[in-house]
Amino acid sequence: EDQVTQSPEALRLQEGESSSLNCSYTVSGLRGLFWYRQDPGKGPEFLFTLYSAGEEKEKERLKATLTKKESFLHITAPKPEDSATYLCAVQASDYKLSFGAGTTVTVRA
Amino acid sequence: EAQVTQNPRYLITVTGKKLTVTCSQNMNHEYMSWYRQDPGLGLRQIYYSMNVEVTDKGDVPEGYKVSRKEKRNFPLILESPSPNQTSLYFCASRSTATDTQYFGPGTRLTVL
Fold this sequence. Notes:
The complex is a heterodimer of chains A (109) and B (112).
Chain A (H helix, E strand, L loop, with lengths): L2 E5 L2 E5 L4 E8 L5 E7 L6 E6 L5 E4 L2 E5 L3 E6 L8 E8 L5 E3 L3 E6 L1
Parallel strand pairs in A: 2-11
Antiparallel strand pairs in A: 1-3, 3-8, 4-5, 4-9, 6-7, 7-8, 9-10, 9-11
Chain B lengths: L3 E4 L2 E4 L5 E7 L5 E8 L3 E10 L2 E4 L7 E2 L9 E3 L8 E8 L6 E3 L3 E5 L1
């Protein structure tokens, strides 16, 4: 069974304090690993797709990396508007998508 | 504007009263799916559809039905809702070419 585990569950940061979120996974035939951002009461918003170990993607203050067993989402010099829940998901060879429970990030000014 | 729409956004109903949540996308995507989101459990896939007339069970299909008669629409049907189906529901669609999945705004369902 495909499994996705995200840590920590919650992260409180001071503005400008960089940190990383972890997503560890087990999946049969990884087709892709996805990162989403979700604001309260809204649908998840797509951030990145990673396909193979060693791949990296960047968008503004966010950078996602992938190894064979885990992915990291690095937040560099975060701002209060980066506060959200960040979701990781893996897509298996049968196209099924499995999500982690998410990491809720709070950035204080 | 590319979007996934869901209706209704909020629904309070009673046990056993059949209901349908509609989902529509305007991006000509082949793949559509339904998720429920519960605190501490994350997003769990209910059903997905690879194309018209092709549907398959996700991780938590019990108590739900879907149909895909048109490419743009993918309604979720609860024939006899129960309180354990109280949840936040999301519809999503994506192109099989890009893997980028777009989510709808969500439907908050309460079953009394």
